[in-house]
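Here is a protein:
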Amino acid sequence: MAEMSARECEMEANRLRGRLAATVDQLQTNLRPARLKDEVARGVGLDDISAAKVFDVAVKRHPIPTAVVAVGLSACAFMLVRNRSKSGGTRITGALRDAAASLSQSAGDVFRERAAKQRREFVGAAKSHIETGLTGLADTIEKKVEDVIEIVPEASGIRPLVSSAVKLLLSAIAEGMLTRAKA
């Protein structure tokens, strides 16, 4: 590699700094939790969810549990109608209220458990992808830093100083971005 003047080194460092800043900005945009959630939702077909879609998904993905719930609701309705005709309709509202409360409690518990499980799976997968992306980013940054440091003439003996200074600067920038992202 031919020796470069101080001005050329500065221009090259500025160019690489600009590329690095653009890469970091793009990663910040792409790794926002809301964007990751939207991307996953689109990937599994749940981006425009409604009650009808939830029922449709439940029937397609879990036909047996959905059928069991339908049979249970039908049996409950049958028993309520039968009790109404025997008691003249006075106990139906209390029984209906109790049955609805029990069903809603059970359904809520099941949905919460499944949501918690899916959230844990999503967070685990997102962590894995983010760690992989950050490892690749760190490797790329380290390579680019080494490329920039190679520009510094070896004879001057300041290459280790420049290397340390650049790495400290990058660490400070990353820490500042993380602190700002948490706030």
Q: What stands out?
A: The chain has a mean pLDDT of 76. The chain has one domain: 6-30+62-182.
